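User: Show me sequence and structure for the first protein, then do the same for the second.

Assistant: Starting with the first protein.
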Amino acid sequence: MHMERIYATGKRKTAVARVWLMPGTGKVTVNGKDLKEYFSDHVVAEDVIYAPFKLTNLMGRFDVLTTVCGGGKSAQAEAIRHGIARALITYSPELKPILKKAGFVTRDPREKERKKYGLHGARRGQQYSKR
């Protein structure tokens, strides 16, 4: 199957990752930096990002170019994973059940609830004082 590059968007919480997959040797570039350099302070980010490839036995077949913004490092890593999973489905639709079973296709919709007026947080009220 001939392909130039596949594009997909991955999201988690407030992190958004734009992912391009190209045939290559398995090099991952995040925001112009190497994966290890960008996630140098985050231990599990590498495992999270490579998970869809390991699961589908396509490790080292694609180069990944991604730009990611918003959220923290953990959410960014999972947004990239989401994008890679979606791009792999575009590349080969028969991979969908495998990736779906592992939960890589579902976007994590949990976002921080906004703070309401008159409260200390989204739901935390004032402290009750008996005297």
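Switching to the second protein now.
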Amino acid sequence: MVIKQKHIYWLSTIILFGTLIATGILYFVYHDTLSIYFKHYGYPTYIIYPLAVAKIVGAMVILYNKNKLLKELAYIGFFFNFILAFFAHYMINEFDPFPSISLLLLLISYFTGKKIRP
């Protein structure tokens, strides 16, 4: 049973945080295109670069798994990020499954990680 939970933890964690590192890098590469989307969702464009850095650093903190406090802060930061992304899409009547799927993977990663590590 523990081995199965460990696999679920690592699968959800690597998929989610690998994707977040990749999207964080893409925020730097496609800043102009993302500016259009951020304006459409009602967010200021000056948060694109800080959000990219936060995604990359937060994902690395969770994957590196050395500081428990920083790891908890990264998880809660991503939780709020996905909630805000979901409602940004919802408020303009546009469905995007990525925030919902990301939130689900985040919750799976967090709670299975709590079970396999005391």
